[in-house]
Every structure is written in C-alpha cells, then in structure tokens.
Design goal:
With 363 residues, this protein is α/β, with parallel strands linked by helices. It has helices at 6-22, 68-74, 77-92, 97-104, 132-146, 164-167, 207-210, 236-239, 254-261, 315-330, 337-345, and strands at 51-54, 118-122, 153-156, 178-179, 186-192, 201-206, 216-222, 224-225, 233-234, 283-290, 308-312, 361-362. The longest helix is centred in the first third of the chain and has 17 residues, at 6-22. The protein is globular, with a radius of gyration of 19 Å.
C-alpha cells in the first residue's frame, strides 16, 4: 500500500460498511485470524499519516524537571484543546475540527453513540502521566460532540493503574467518566499471532477487551525511554503492556511479543477469520503526550519540556515516526534503529511507503 490517498480509504470504508451491515455483531472470533499485513485498519484516515505540533503556549513557563501535580498547574488547557483540534484536522486533512473528529471516531454498527463503550488506555507507571488537558479533550469530543455517555467512557491501566483515581485525578472530565484504575486487571487468555512464539501461544489480556465489550479504544501514551531491546523508548505500542500481560517483554522474544500483541483483534479490532482483515477498527486513535518527555525511563521525572503533541491511527507507524523524527532527529536521543525498523516491517511497510517523504508532518 504505497502513498494511499484519502479517497482510496473512503472507498475501502464503503466496502467495509457493506460487510458490517451484513454481519453487524462485533465479537472476538475463536479462530486465530492473524492480521493481514498492510491491510487497512482505519477506513477514514490514511493509516500511515502521523501529525505533530510544537507550541510553547501550551505550557505557562519552563520547568523541564517537575511533578505531575505541578504540570497540571502549568498546562494551558485551552491551548492544548485548540492544538488537538488542529492535529485532528491535519490527520484527516480537513479544516473543520468537528468533521475531523467525526472521521476519526467511527460509531460501531447497530449501536447508537449513547450505547457506545469507549476505553482509554493511559500509561500510569511511575512519576510521568497523561496531562488532564489531553485526557479531558478526548473525553469531551466523545460526550459533547458525538453523544457518548460519560458513564460509558473508561480510563484504565491494567497493570499500573491501581491507585490512578487517587494519584492522578484527571481534571475537567465530563460527568460520569470513570477512572477505572486497573479495571479488573489482566486475566483472560487470548491467542497471540506471530512473530511471538510462531503464533502458537496465548497471553492474558484485559477481560473487557478479550470479551469484546469495548467498541472504541483510544491509546494515549507518553514519550519516555525504555529498554534498548524495545527500541530504546516507550510510546503507543509499549503502552499496551498495561492491556496485555507485561512480563514477556522482560524475557526472550521481548520485541516479538510487543510487535505481536499490537496485531491482535484486542487492539486492531475484530477480523475476518479467513482473510485476517479488520472488520471494524477498535483502536481508532493514538496520541503521544510529549508536553514533557525524557530520554531515559520509564521511571523518574521528565527531563525535558518539548511542548509537543502527536497523533496517528496505526500504532507502529506512530512509534516509528516519533522515534526516528522526534526522539532521534529533533531531541538527539539514541534509539535502536534495527528494533525501530521492525515496527514498520513486521506490519508489512517500508519507509518509502510513508507519506511526506517519511517526514513527520508538523502542523
């Protein structure tokens, strides 16, 4: 799939919509439907497009090394919200924010927006956390623009979210939005495709996703350092180590496990068991909150204040672009280039497939 146009995506969406009309039920198939590489996941947005924005006006002052509670006082919510609208427009390639958000978030078939269940995966390990302005903007889009009930929006980290409601009480959330902490934890085995274990193994997943009880998944990640084996960073793909059992990334085939779980129906969406193509996108948006960021990690306070946010819809492409163009080129931080390159190749892509000559699209 080289240099896909938005028109091509919309054409694919019509075909996908016809399929869904025939078989409207969203479920996790029992068969091991391995995802077809390079096949379209999100039908309305170029899956290879990643947009970013840098704006010092999003933060009042400069203080690179600081706590989450102080960051909350420094962040300028209105500037963050305005820039997230700009990012949504840049991702969809439109000038109308409402139109952009409606293209990004797709209502599940045979459900109303008031019936739609949304899960937001946040990274709650250690001392760096999603800023409230970022979290609340996403929630407000769902409730105020689309009509999702606040009580149907669930914020979770299945591993490190144990005290999230108390330690990270996100401000400005719509009424009823639930900070679920671990949301019951990770206890339900699901099949995991190659390259981990040759596709013959299972791993435990968050029960709500494993049982197909979530309609839309949003991935809000941070920008921190991590093991060189995993590329040297943690962003959207690694964020799902709070959706799936995480200890396998500390064993043999660690990178293979990370790549594999991000190809499961519990992340990408339910798949045709014969073709491996996604029938309905589950993870519909990936956001990287790099208002503050760090070269090292994943623990400790941030060390830099880049005043940066980014969006995309396909997690491995988001991570590849931000690792190479933001962390390495812009910030000057080392990455494991071989591991990072596999985030493209294991999903069937090459750098020459990427739009804008493989450069991060700055808004």
């Amino acid at each position: 799939m080289n240099h896909i146009s938005r028109r091509q995506f919309i054409k694919k969406a019509v075909v996908a919509g016809s399929t869904l009309a025939v078989s409207p039920m969203i479920f996790v198939p029992k068969a091991r439907a391995f995802w077809e590489k390079k096949s379209i996941v999100h039908p309305n947005v170029n899956n290879l497009r990643v947009v970013g924005i840098t704006d010092p006006k999003m933060i009042n002052g400069v203080r690179p090394v600081t706590s989450w509670s102080l960051q909350e006082k420094m962040v300028v919510r209105d500037a963050v919200w305005e820039n997230m609208d700009k990012l949504a427009c840049g991702l969809v390639e439109t000038k109308n924010p409402a139109e952009a958000w409606r293209a990004i978030f797709i209502k599940p078939p045979k459900k109303s927006w008031t019936q739609t269940v949304v899960a937001i995966k946040t990274n709650n390990i250690s001392l760096q956390h999603t800023r409230s302005a970022v979290m609340s903007k996403v929630c407000r889009v769902f409730t105020d623009l689309l009509g999702v009930k606040g009580t149907n929006i669930h914020i979770f980290d299945g591993v490190h979210g144990g005290s999230m409601g108390k330690s990270t009480p996100f401000a400005g959330l719509p009424e009823g939005v639930r900070i679920e902490d671990q949301w019951g934890g990770i206890d339900t085995p699901v099949p995991v495709p190659p390259p981990w274990g040759d596709g013959r193994r299972t791993a435990k997943c968050l029960r709500h996703l494993a049982e197909g009880k979530v309609d839309i998944l949003v991935n809000i990640a941070l920008c921190k350092g991590h093991s060189d084996t995993l590329g040297g960073f943690t962003m959207t793909m690694k964020n799902h180590m709070g959706t799936f059992y995480p200890m396998y990334i500390h064993q043999d085939e660690a990178l293979e496990y990370l790549l594999a779980v991000n190809q499961t129906p519990q992340v990408l969406g339910p798949m045709d068991p014969k073709t491996g193509r996604v029938l309905f996108p589950l993870q519909q948006l990936c956001i990287v909150d790099a208002l503050w960021a760090s070269e090292g990690g994943p623990g400790g306070y941030p060390r830099t204040q880049p005043n940066f946010l980014a969006m995309g819809v396909l997690s491995p492409v988001v991570d590849y672009m931000l690792a190479t163009r933001f962390r390495k080129e812009k910030m000057g931080w080392d990455i494991n280039e071989e591991a990072t390159r596999r985030m493209l190749t294991e999903f069937g892509y090459r750098e020459t497939d990427l739009p804008a000559g493989g450069k991060l699209i700055e808004i």
